[in-house]
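Researcher: We're teaching a course module on how sequence relates to structure. For the next exercise, students receive a sequence and then see the predicted structure as tokens, so they can try to spot secondary structure elements on their own. Here is the exercise chain.
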Amino acid sequence: MVRSVSWRIFLPAAAEPPKNITGAVWLLADMSLNIWALSIVKALGLGFPAFQIVFLRALVGLVLMVPWIIRYRHSFLNLPDLSLHALRVVFSAIALTASFYAIARLPLALFTAIGFTRPILTMVAAAIILREVISRGRWVAAFVGLLGVIIAVDPSQMVGGGGLAAQIVTVLAATAVVIVTRQLVAAPTVVMMTFYTAGLTVIAAPFAYASWQPVPVNQWPALLAVGAFAQCAQFCFLRAHRYGQAAFLAVLSYASLIFSTSVGYWVFGEVPNAGFWFGASLIVAATLWITLRREAPLGATSK
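Model: And here is the predicted structure for the students to work with:
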């Protein structure tokens, strides 16, 4: 599932000693819930418009958040940067809708591998938009990651690549979300999540209404479970980054490729070829380099 928020905003104000094992357990729970939500979307996605699934996912998430919103309602008083919140929601809507369209049309492993390029694109966007200084090593890593995508995708077999195009849109929009989110680091978590779920519900509603497909009674539980799984996964994600070190969790997050490949194989009969594994390994290596280098202490010299 698409992540719309940078991990940095969820760290407690006072730094606590990292509890990486606890963080790892929460992150594994997040990945498990997320892969099953995506699996449901993949299984049912061709039968329903992406906006309809996005609307149901967002609505269920919003309902689950109501008690939290009521408890912390004071956090919504005199909110600044409303335009940035709105921009973040628009990009999030694009990213989530495109991802739901893509997951129904791409192998799970390929969907996940392409998603790993987001930190690379975020780095490039930060250099262009936020004027962040990027070392030569990171630029080389970005090139290696792009090469990995080309190998994993295998352009010679790109026939009817609507799903691939949608996943590229997903990564671009999700990158924009991260860039906007960096300008909202002071916003409380409940505010960020409420804007996300409520905004998605409002944006998706008219499109879902216009393209609505009747849902058989026996498929309602699965569609509603997408929202429940995704919202619970987001909670687990926040807890993971509260306890664990970011660099440690960044490495562990690549286990999602194992999860998605396993589910793709056992549930959907998808068998990745050797080219995919080679390309995916380049993507993982490039993203690991960029992520771990980002965690270097302040004042460290980039080479």
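Model: If you want an answer key for the exercise: Residues 18-294 form one domain. The chain has a mean pLDDT of 80.
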